[in-house]
Amino acid sequence: MQRTEQYEPIKFLESKRVYLRPIENEDLDFFYAKALWDKEGRRLTGTQTIFSRSGVQKWFENISTDSSRMDLLICLQENNQPIGDIAMLDIDHQNRNSLVRISIFDHGFWGNGYGTEAMALLLEYGFEVLNLHRIGLDVYSFNKRGIKSYEKLGFKQEGIIRDELFYDGEYHDLIIMGVLKNEFHLVDN
C-alpha cells in the first residue's frame, strides 16, 4: 500500500513572510530552469558560466557534503513557493567569519523586502547560533537595490575592487561589504 500523506516542509529558519529550507534534489529542475538562466539575475550576480543539468546535479552533490557552507531555498510562508536561494559560504569557525550570497529568482518579488528578510534570518543564525563575528559579501556597483538592502542590515562598505567584472562589454567595480555582530540590526518587514 502506498502512503499519500502530505508532509509539511522543513522550515529551518522562519520569519513572518518567508522561511529558509535545505535545497533538495527535487529542487534542481527549478534551479536549472528558473534561477540559472534569468538574464537580469545573471547580470546582478555576474554569472557568465554555461550550466548543464548534469553540472547542476554535480554542484548539488558537492555542496551537500561540504560542511563549510549552508545552501538554502527561500520560500513564501503563505504557499511554500520557492522564490530564491541564499547561502552562507566559507564558514570559518576558528576566525569566526563567513561570506553570504543571495538571489531572488522571480522579478515579481524584487523590491518588496523578501531578500532583506531572508538575509536577516541567515545573519541572525550566523551570529547567534554559529557565533560568528563578521559576515561579508561581494556586490557589483550597479546593484543599487542589493546595496541598499545590505546597508539596512548593518553592512558597511569595506573596499572596492575596480573593474573586477567584464560583463556585456563593460567593466564593473566589485564592492566588498561586511557586518560585525555588534553592527547587525534586524529589520521588521
Would you give an account of this structure?
This protein has 189 residues and is α+β, with helices and mostly antiparallel strands. It has helices at 28-35, 39-45, 53-64, 114-128, 144-152, and strands spanning 13-14, 18-22, 70-76, 82-92, 97-104, 134-140, 156-167, 170-180. Strands 1-2-3-4-5-6-8-7 form an eight-stranded mixed beta sheet, with helices on both faces. Helix 1 (28-35) packs across helix 3.
Nutshell version of this structure?
With 189 residues, the chain is α+β, with helices and mostly antiparallel strands. It has helices at residues 28-35, 39-45, 53-64, 114-128, 144-152; strands at 13-14, 18-22, 70-76, 82-92, 97-104, 134-140, 156-167, 170-180. The protein has an 8-stranded mixed sheet, sandwiched between helices.
Q: What is the overall shape?
A: globular
Query: How many strands, which pairing sense, and closed or not: the largest β-sheet?
Result: 8 strands, mixed
What proportion of the residues form beta strands (DSSP E)? 25-35%
Overall strand count: 8
Strands of the biggest beta sheet: in what spatial order?
A: 1-2-3-4-5-6-8-7
Beginning-to-end CA distance, first to last residue: 45 Å
Proportion in helices: 25-40%
Q: Poorly predicted ranges (pLDDT <50, ≥5 residues)?
A: none
Rounded average pLDDT: 87
Radius of gyration (CA) equals: 17 Å
User: What is the tally of helical segments?
Assistant: 5
Structural class: alpha+beta
Secondary-structure element string: EEHHHEEEHEHEE
